[in-house]
Amino acid sequence: MAVNRSSAVRTDLPFLSRRVKPRAAAPVPPQAAPAPRTTPAPAAAPSTSAPRTSAPAARPATPASPAPAPGSLSLSPPPRQQPAPSVSPSLSLGLSPKAEAASSRAAAPAAPRPTSSSRTSEPVRVEPLHNRLFPAPGMGELRSLDRQNPVVRLTPMESAVGSLVVAGTVRAVWEGPGYSTGSISAGEFRPEDLDGVQVQAPGNRPLVGYEDDLALVPLRHVRMLRRALFFPKPKQPMSVGVYNGKSVTIPAQAGHRSYYALSVIRIDDVLELRAEELPYGMEFKAIWEAFGFTMTTRLPYQGR
After folding, report:
1. What is the CB-side half-sphere exposure of residue 114 using CA atoms within 13 A?
2. Which strand (E) or helix (H) includes residue 100?
3. Consecutive H or E run containing 45
4. For the whole prediction, is pTM greater than 0.70?
5. How far apart are CA 236 and CA 259, in angstroms?
6. Side by side, which strands form the sheet with 195-196?
7. Per-residue pLDDT tens for 239-260?
């Protein structure tokens, strides 16, 4: 390949540039007379064979690579990028390297902790209240309620299907929604036999009512019932039955001078039957007041 050794500047290639270094001035002897000032001729471009003068020594620095001209290829490697510091630079306090590293880690921002809103919320299943009660026999496990076995607990199905039938009672007391309380005697309904207020369930049925001598509690609306109390006929037993034919009996006498009353309490979705021992000679009003029943006052009806 032929090498162009001409000293002339090429003009056919506009994208190339060439720097022409000025010639070094000749040293002037100290005693020589000054030469007459003449107009210097334009310096010719130095040839490739002319010796190059060394540039003055400069402070070592990383030279910046010039941008390649358009249309040419750049063969110089790209400058290496330094990784960004993870911690902002700070003043040195004259500590040891380990102490400075510890202070840098302490100054670094802590990673954000996950908040409760970012966590996946899982539904919490609440166990029914009747599953957390003390163990009690169920309907059909006992034949009668007495001092030794005074409690029997119905299942959620037995507490919600059909009617609770209580036979052998003479009077019933109930407490409904809003703590409304009432009491009625067995037999045909008469307004003068009613104390407190009568609670009507949907379907125009009383929450606790009588059909002849049978006391009925419609269990479809059992959540309206808070509790009830049934008094037996003199010296006669009571019996309680549910839809599946199971029943339990409350004896007529608890002792020589006491008898049993039946208490029905709703706990969440189940009914609990209790035999309560009472002494002879107490009036009904004194008994239900001892159990915390206070009859709701009825307002007189004023028609037009």
Report:
1. 5
2. helix 97-107
3. none
4. no
5. 10
6. 151-153, 270-279, 258-267, 227-232, 169-175, 181-185, 195-196
7. 999 999 999 999 998 888 999 9
